[in-house]
TrEMBL record:
Location(s), subcellular: Cell membrane
Alphabetized InterPro entries for the sequence: Atg22-like, ATG22/LtaA_families, MFS_dom, MFS_trans_sf
Domain of life: Bacteria
GO molecular function terms attached to this record: transmembrane transporter activity
Gene Ontology CC: one annotated term: plasma membrane
PROSITE patterns in UniProt: MFS
Keywords, alphabetical: Membrane, Transmembrane, Transmembrane helix, Transport
Chain segments annotated as transmembrane: 70-90, 102-119, 125-145, 166-185, 197-219, 258-282, 294-312, 324-342, 348-367, 394-410, 416-434
Protein name in UniProt: UMF1 family MFS transporter
Species name: Kineococcus aurantiacus
Length: 451
């Protein structure tokens, strides 16, 4: 890189802050508060005046939807839309001289929608759905740009360490705001608020946190020089990013281990993201926990996940990243089976399960990204990380769809949870077929290894 070491270090510190910024929305809104709160608002609209035994449905574009499945279907719709847009945004990011501007554009649109969730009340479930779609899609688009910026702020040898520090900053930022919101939701009267308004204010705080702290990377990354891009006289047409995307996808056939890993990751990460997304509504509706108890649970998961990433890193040094990730998938199967067996109201047992989730969540996320970085062909890091981000954030829709459908058909979240076991089993089988050594050789040579 042509930047000085001091300039690069400052830009890198600014880049870390975006994980700190967006993780507040991921933890407070996506993981904890939105799904249970949207379920309450939807049930209120479907059955005015009925607190229990509501069997009525909502009409969403003419389709009957159970109030308890609305949040899950919203997540499904958001991730499907993201899956369509992410690869093109990744190609656009590769052709943009100033990626930080693109990052800020997506982040601030999402943060604005997240902040506006303070207006979701009464029976306005439709407003919650629209704002959630905008916020989640904007988040996923910003994350693919953020991953591409990793290449700009670090060299190949230091990329794993820089990426890990970003993850750590995200866990810490999410933990801190969630802790503050826990105080608010646990004792709303202390702050002169009702229980519902405490949730609404907490949702808005996540959007404000996301938007305000995004200023740091957008301003700090301006120090990086403009990236070289193809001659604009040749590649000015709107179809240029599409052509680049096509070239990248065609190139996957020359790197079969990358493709195998992406397929495996797509499947097992779908299961992970669904467990995370559905955990709050499962805890509230199936196990009877309050918002304060759910916030406490996620706080514990966030704290342990940081330590889990470090512990899995040590295990990977001894057993290898692939074996350690496979061990993590076995633990995810244990998590699902244990969650199925948790009795209603058994909060202590639920917290013990949260510790296990934290260990395996931090470990599998950190090592999956690290393992993929070893398989990426030299000189095409940004393009391939775009595909990785699509697998991580933008295509995790089937799990939430399965979970929502099974919950609606059976009237219980427990069988819906068991249905997710298939994602971890199939993902593990696909991961076993990845030849890491062959993939590393391909990444270094740019061609298929000689057998």
């Amino acid at each position: 890189m042509s930047t000085t070491d001091a300039t690069l270090r400052r830009a890198r510190r600014s880049w870390y802050v975006y994980d700190w910024a967006n993780s507040a929305f991921v933890t407070t809104t996506q993981t904890v508060l939105l799904a249970p709160y949207l379920t309450v608002v939807a049930r209120r609209a479907a059955c005015p005046g009925a607190s229990e035994g509501c069997t009525a449905t909502l009409s969403v574009l003419g389709v009957p939807v159970a109030p308890g499945s609305l949040a899950l279907y919203t997540t499904t719709a958001a991730t499907l839309l993201s899956a369509l847009l992410l690869p093109f945004v990744g190609a656009l990011a590769d052709r943009t001289r100033h990626r930080h501007r693109l990052l800020g554009s997506f982040a601030w649109v999402g943060a604005g929608a997240a902040t506006a969730m303070v207006a979701v009340g009464g029976d306005r479930w439709w407003l919650g759905v629209v704002l959630a779609l905008v916020a989640v899609v904007s988040l996923t688009l910003s994350l693919v740009v953020n991953d591409a910026l990793l290449v700009d702020v670090s060299g190949p040898a230091e990329r794993d360490a820089v990426s890990s520090r970003g993850w750590a900053a995200g866990y810490l930022g999410g933990f801190l705001l969630l802790g503050l919101n826990l105080l608010l939701v646990s004792s709303p009267a202390t702050f002169g608020l009702s229980a519902e308004w405490a949730v609404r204010v907490s949702l808005a705080s996540a959007g404000l946190w996301w938007g305000l702290f995004t200023i740091v990377p957008v301003v700090g990354l301006r120090r990086l020089p403009a990236r070289p891009v193809p001659d604009p006289a040749v590649d000015r047409t709107p179809a240029a990013p599409v052509r680049q995307l096509v070239r990248t996808l065609r190139g996957l056939r020359h790197h079969p281990q990358v493709l195998r890993f992406l397929l495996a990751y797509l499947v097992f990460n779908d299961g992970i993201q669904t467990v995370v997304a559905a955990s709050s509504v499962y805890g509230q509706e199936e196990l009877g926990f309050s918002s304060a108890q759910l916030l406490t649970t996620v706080l514990l998961v966030q704290a342990v996940a940081f330590l889990g990433a470090l512990a899995f890193g040590r295990l990977a040094g001894r057993f290898g990243a692939k074996r350690t990730v496979l061990g993590g998938l076995v633990l995810w199967i244990v998590v699902v089976l244990a969650a199925f067996a948790v009795p209603r109201g058994a909060f202590t047992t639920w917290l013990a399960l949260a510790v296990l989730i934290g260990v395996v969540l931090g470990g599998t996320q950190a090592l999956s990204r690290s393992l993929f970085s070893r398989l990426v062909p030299a000189g095409a890091e940004a393009e391939y990380f775009s595909l990785y981000q699509a697998g991580e954030r933008g295509t995790s829709w089937l799990g939430t769809l399965v979970f929502g459908l099974v919950a609606q058909l059976t009237g219980s979240y427990r069988p819906a949870l068991v249905a997710l076991l298939a994602f971890f089993v199939v993902g593990a089988v696909l991961l076993v077929r990845v030849d890491v050594d062959a993939g590393v050789q391909q990444a270094r040579s740019g061609t298929d290894p000689v057998r």
